[in-house]
Write a structure and sequence with these properties.
CATH architecture of one domain: Roll
Shape: globular
Strand order of the largest sheet: 2-3-4-1-5-8-7-6
CATH topology of one domain: 2,3-Dihydroxybiphenyl 1,2-Dioxygenase, domain 1
Radius of gyration: 18 Å
Length: 203
């Protein structure tokens, strides 16, 4: 067998679902001191019946990140593997390992390898700051290989911090939703950056 180039750069992030984002943020951010460095918020995503969600990331050192998904309106199932197929699929996809590569060419090479095998690439997506390919391994685990689309900025850091604050606050209210999350986030931004309107911008 020909020797394959080994250009992956370690773990980009490991991701898990959470049903208590407030306690999760307070534990990792406030107890362990892991800063929230990125947050992706979406009104659904892709498949039908996909709930609104916030996907937030903690810096765990060495450029590695630990991430969690919080799905609005999704109750914690009474057993680990819920009978409802939609919930089961969401939780299965939320638990995944993401492996980092540096360049578009590196990502294309791993897609080529997958598509030449019996484990074809299932999905390729350009997210907000990364482009990723996805495949299910022989054990049923979702594997993501991802490359950066741009460098993170100070505005990204601010957005992540404010997103975490907003999520903690609205989660502890009745019927949390993405609409309430965005409304609270807007209030926090207005309160915290009223004197910097010309200097701070958000993508």
């Amino acid at each position: 067998m020909a020797q394959l180039d080994h250009v992956v750069r370690g773990v980009d992030h490991a991701a898990f679902p959470t049903f208590d984002p407030a306690s999760t943020i307070e534990f990792y951010r406030d107890v362990l001191g892991f800063p929230v460095v990125h947050a992706t918020c979406a009104l659904g995503w892709g498949p039908t019946r996909h709930p609104d969600f916030v996907h937030f990331f903690f810096d765990i050192g060495n450029g590695d990140r630990l991430a969690f998904f919080y799905y609005f309106g999704l109750d914690k199932p009474p057993v680990l593997e819920p009978a409802d197929p939609v919930t089961a699929e969401l939780l299965s996809r939320a638990r995944h390992l993401a492996i980092h590569v540096d360049t578009e060419d590196d990502l294309a090479e791993y897609r080529r390898r997958l598509d030449a095998s019996s484990y074809r690439c299932e999905l390729q997506v350009r997210h907000e700051t990364v482009e990723s390919i996805y495949v299910t391994d022989p054990n049923g685990f979702l594997i993501e290989i991802t490359r950066p689309l741009r460098a993170l900025t100070p505005e990204d850091d601010i957005d992540a911090r404010v997103s975490a604050e907003a999520l903690v606050e609205i989660f502890r209210e009745d019927s949390p939703s993405l609409e309430k999350f965005y409304a609270r986030k807007a209030v926090l931004i207005a309160d915290q950056f009223a004197d910097e309107a010309g200097e701070v911008t958000f993508a």
